[in-house]
Fold:
Amino acid sequence: MRSGRNARDRRGMDVGVPDWRFELLRLVAEGTLVVAHMPYSGTHRGRIVGVEATGRSCTVDEMVIFRIAEAWEVYDDAGMWRQLGVAPPA
Structure:
């Protein structure tokens, strides 16, 4: 098991497993920590770190722990009222 990965570590997966997708199964927060359980799955169709394509499917279980330092929210209030076809309340 590897740790400390970042987005750069996964670049080869776009070519090696072009249908690589994840499913967010659980998201749990406590204090400033958030844990995500998100298994990835796909088909090995291209070279990954020198390993030739096998054509086989695989699923990789992944847990990610985040530490929240700050949070921002963007909420399209005007867009919601426009979609509802009404003027925003005063």
